[in-house]
Amino acid sequence: MEKTRILILGGGFGGIYTAMELCKALKKRPSDDLEIVMVNKENYTVYTPMLGEVISGNLSPLDVSIAIRDLCPRINLYVQGVEHIDFDRKVVITSINSSSVKNEIPYDHLVLAMGLEDNFSIVRGLSDHGLHFKSVADALILRYHIINLLEHADTEKDEAKRRKMLTFVVAGGGFSGVEAIGEMNDYVRGAARRYNNIKDEDIKMILLHGYERILPEFPPSLSDYSYNILKGKKIDIRLNVFIEAVTSDEAVLRGGTVIPTKTVVATIGGAPGAVLKALPLKKERGRIVVNQYLAVTELPNIWALGDCAYIMDNNTNKPCPPTAQFAVREGRRLAKNIIAEIDGSPKKPFSFKDLGMMGALGHHSAAGVVLGIKVSGLLGWMMWRFVYWSKLPGTVRKIRVAFDWILDFFVPLDIVNINLDPTENISKMHFEPGEMIFHEGDPGDKVFVILSGDAVVLKGVDQKPVGNLTIGDCFGEGALMHDRPRSASVRTVTAVDVLTVERKAFKALFTNVPVLREAFASLIHQRKDIA
């Protein structure tokens, strides 16, 4: 007998719990008539409520990463990315690492659980210089970025550069932003005690939020409590503030205020990815509209849940919030509705009474509402840990997390810095008007090509203009090729985007491509003033 294939796109809470509930249904069915397939970019799912503790090192990355095959042993997992969904042919086109080799996966029922992506395009330069906080890799990169800055700040003699290294900015005062800055603040201040030349007062932690109170999901009293707790931890909270641009050296706020910093972590909401945007389905605020059964009404056998779906709660007649506890219940209900659809039995509408919400505010402090009761402080923190620990899938992982938490009371913070920087290559940078791309005397570490905007070349003690640069111009090659300091400065006139080629990649191209070598040799000869 030909099997009915249920294809799930996405391995977050919604997709995973849909798959887990379907696996339970398979055990109860008299015939082996169903096939469950999942497509996800990783072979694991992330337990996001505990992700912040990876920053501080309280938890190992493996503690918050759970193999999908262990949770759903009866599914067929494709560790691939979704390229396109063809509703007419009822196939999903996937690829491995966006390669040219494509794979077609047919389906009978399609579950869209692809979540949302960081919407960094709404802020100039954020995609080039902002740090994410959604995945295990993001948390690790942020952790080692912090340690790297502490190492350099400890020996930096230039006070302005040092202050910049020790200023940390988080944009977004929702749960993710508050939990991120709480963990960062505890970790940075704790780790700084191990550095001889860094004092606690040198460290600046800044939380930017575009509305009148942080954690707007909370009742005002709990938002105010959380605000005061964070302020007591020496976190500078700026409300009704929007970030407009980010460069490698500063965050620019609406109104012109500039914060010199090397760290901007953005938790400013998400947007559907390109695949979801292209779907010819009704959307509300970018999310796919589904009915009370979590089904798309325009097409048969298409379902959606989680962050990417716009779901009206049958219990409250309000849109369901994009939280883990809702995604879990949506997944369970959706699986049962798919089985009901296949068997021709009645489906049930989704409804769920919110059990509450909790947010960590750093070590030994949290706030929340549980079953209508407000909790905060140390009690709230203990409840926060217990609730999420109890819901962590797998006994072995529970034991590991409990052991790590106990060990955390007895061992000092770990400040080992494992280099996670990518191999030197080509990247993109953004600069605001009037910003220095590099200074005369700086070491030559990369070559620049202007993609948009204009810049001016400055030379000498009085920084006299000696040339102009515009779209398509290349500069900085002289100092790099001759291993000498920059012989001039370059300052932007307008907002500028540049392509940068790191030393190693540039020298490889220069050495091995004769045409390129001749072109740059001629360029160096013509423009001796531009380092």
TrEMBL record:
Which Gene3D superfamilies does this one have?
Answer: 3.50.50.100, Jelly Rolls (2.60.120.10)
Q: Which domain of life is it from?
A: Bacteria
Question: In this protein, which residues make up the domain named Cyclic nucleotide-binding?
Answer: 424-527
Alphabetic keyword roster = FAD, Flavoprotein, NAD, Oxidoreductase
Any keyword Flavoprotein? yes
Stored InterPro entries: cNMP-bd_CS (IPR018488), cNMP-bd_dom (IPR000595), cNMP-bd_dom_sf (IPR018490), FAD/NAD-bd_sf (IPR036188), FAD/NAD-binding_dom (IPR023753), NDH-2 (IPR045024), RmlC-like_jellyroll (IPR014710)
What's the EC number here? 1.6.5.9
- Stretches assigned to coiled coil: none
Q: Which Gene Ontology molecular function entries are recorded, alphabetically?
A: oxidoreductase activity
Question: Which Pfam families does UniProt cross-reference here?
Answer: cNMP_binding (PF00027), Pyr_redox_2 (PF07992)
The answer, when asked if Oxidoreductase is one of the entry's keywords, is yes
Where in the sequence is the signal peptide annotated?
none
Under catalytic activity, the entry for this protein gives: a quinone + NADH + H(+) = a quinol + NAD(+)
Family affiliation: Belongs to the NADH dehydrogenase family.
Its protein name is NADH:ubiquinone reductase (non-electrogenic)
According to its UniProt entry, this protein's organism is: Candidatus Magnetominusculus xianensis
